[in-house]
Amino acid sequence: MLSGTTDHDNVSSFAIFRCIVSIAGSLIRLRRDIVIHMLPHLAFVLHRLLLITRRMRLQLGAKQSKLVVGTLPSWISPSQQLGIAESRALSRVLTHSLSKLSRVCIQHSTARLPPKH
């Protein structure tokens, strides 16, 4: 769903991006017990979402444009890329994840320490 491809839709589907961001945010907010065990996978999803928000520069040549477009998923049109609203939604999830997950990771790591005598 998030992997790059050379075939793209004519129109970008912003709803797919918003759904993925919403699901990631809900998992972080509501199911921290699950997220702690799948943290590498969540980090990969957030990384891919960050890559999707990139915009192509107008000065790029054909080869460079093709390389950048190849990193976009099929539901993102190269001519109609994600906007500011989508970037802000992802930013909120990233900020929330940093505050919540850092606290959970600290609690999880201290829970495994042997008790002091």
Automatic annotation (TrEMBL):
The UniProt record lists the keyword Transmembrane: yes
Record-linked InterPro entries: Urb2/Npa2_C (IPR018849)
Highest taxon in the source lineage: Eukaryota
Domain Nucleolar 27S pre-rRNA processing Urb2/Npa2 C-terminal residue range list: 12-100
Keywords: Membrane, Transmembrane, Transmembrane helix
Bilayer-crossing regions: 34-51
Protein name: Nucleolar 27S pre-rRNA processing Urb2/Npa2 C-terminal domain-containing protein
